[in-house]
Write a structure and sequence with these properties.
- Keywords: Signal.
- It comes from Aquipluma nitroreducens.
- InterPro entries: DUF6089, OMP/PagP_B-barrel.
- The protein is mainly beta and about 260 residues long.
- It has a single domain (about 1-250), classed as Porin (Beta Barrel), CATH 2.40.160.
- Helix content is about 5%, strand content about 55%.
- It has one helix and 13 strands, in the order H-E-E-E-E-E-E-E-E-E-E-E-E-E.
- The chain has one helix at about 1-15; strands at about 25-35, 40, 50-60, 65-80, 90-110, 125-140, 145-165, 170-180, 195, 200-205, 215-225, 235, 250.
- Strands 1-3-4-5-6-7-8-11 form an eight-stranded antiparallel β-barrel. A two-stranded antiparallel sheet has the order 9-10.
- Strand 3 and strand 4 (about 65-80) form a beta hairpin.
- The longest helix has 15 residues, at about 1-15.
- The chain is elongated.
- About 35% of the residues are buried.
Length: about 260
C-alpha cells in the first residue's frame, strides 16, 4: 500500500509541475481479469477486485494526460493447451493468482467537450491510450524445474468510458480497458505450445513482442476537481464544431 501511495504522489507532483490549466484527482474501484494462454477459462472464478487512483492534467475540454495506478489480484481457473515433445496439444487444468501493480501514462480524448463541474459540459464519452508497466511475481514450470522471479513488463494500455458531472467539483465515470503485456509470464505459462520436434529443434510460438497475455479492468472512478485552472478560458460556441480543435479560447485574446 505504501508503494502504491508513493508512486501516485510522484505522478501527481510531476503532472502538477507542468502547468495549471486544470488538474483532477480520482480513485478507481472495480474488477480485473485476464486473457492469455488459457483456452477455457471459468470467468466467474477469474474476476477479482481492483483499485487505484489517478491524476489527470487537462489541457482543455477535449484533451488530457492521465497518470494512472491500478493494483489488484489477477488470476484465472481453466485449461490450456500443452505440448512439449508431442506436436498434438493436450488440454490440462491450470490456475494462478497473483498481485499485479499496473502503472500507465495515458492520453485521454473526450468526444464531447467536458470539464468537471462546468454546467455547459455535463457529460462525455472518452477514449484513452498510452504506455505503461506492470510488475508481478511468477513461478514457471520448465524442463529444468521451477523458475521463480519478479517481472517488470512494458504494457500498451487502451480503453473507453463515459463520465458525468455530479457537482461543482465532483464527477463520476464508468470505464473499461485492456493492457497488452509485452511479457508472457503473467499466467505462469511461458509459451506452453512450444515443443521439441523430431530433429531435436525447439519450436517456439511466442517471444517478448508476440505473446498472449492481457489484463482487463472495468469499474467506476470518482473524480475531484483539484485545480480549476485559467479562469479566462471559456468554451467555444457550438457553431465552431472542429473535432480536433483545442476546444477553448481566451476571453482576453483576439482570434
Amino acid at each position: 500500500m505504501k508503494q502504491l501511495f508513493v508512486i501516485f504522489l510522484i505522478g501527481f507532483l510531476a503532472i502538477k509541475a507542468l502547468a495549471q490549466p486544470s488538474v483532477d484527482i480520482g480513485v478507481f474501484g472495480g474488477g480485473g481479469t485476464y486473457l492469455g494462454d488459457m483456452t477455457k477459462v471459468d470467468f466467474q472464478k477469474s474476476i477479482n477486485p481492483a483499485y487505484g487512483g489517478f491524476v489527470r492534467y487537462n489541457f482543455n475540454p477535449r484533451y488530457a494526460l492521465r497518470f494512472n495506478v491500478i493494483n489488484g489480484t489477477i488470476g484465472a481457473e481453466g485449461e490450456y493447451d500443452y505440448q512439449l515433445y508431442n506436436p498434438d496439444p493436450t488440454d490440462l487444468f491450470w490456475s494462478f493468482s497473483k498481485n499485479v501493480l499496473d502503472i500507465s501514462l495515458n492520453f485521454e480524448w473526450n468526444y464531447l467537450k467536458y470539464i468537471v463541474g462546468d454546467k455547459e459540459t455535463p457529460w462525455s464519452t472518452f477514449i484513452y491510450g498510452g504506455i505503461g508497466i506492470q510488475t508481478f511475481k511468477y513461478s514457471i514450470q520448465t524442463v529444468n524445474g521451477i523458475n521463480d522471479g519478479s517481472e517488470l513488463a512494458p504494457t500498451i494500455p487502451f480503453g473507453l468510458g463515459v463520465k458525468y458531472n455530479l457537482s461543482k467539483r465532483w464527477g463520476i465515470g464508468f470505464e473499461g480497458g485492456l493492457r497488452k503485456s509485452l511479457s508472457d509470464k503473467l499466467d505462469n505459462l511461458d509459451d506452453p505450445l512450444n515443443y521439441v520436434n523430431a530433429d531435436n529443434i525447439q519450436i517456439k510460438y511466442t517471444d517478448q513482442l508476440h505473446n498472449n497475455d492481457w489484463t482487463a479492468y472495468m469499474g467506476i472512478h470518482l473524480v475531484y476537481k483539484l485545480i480549476y485552472g485559467n479562469q479566462n478560458w471559456e468554451l467555444r460556441t457550438v457553431k465552431e464544431r472542429n473535432m480536433i480543435d483545442w476546444g477553448i479560447k481566451n476571453k482576453n485574446r483576439r482570434e
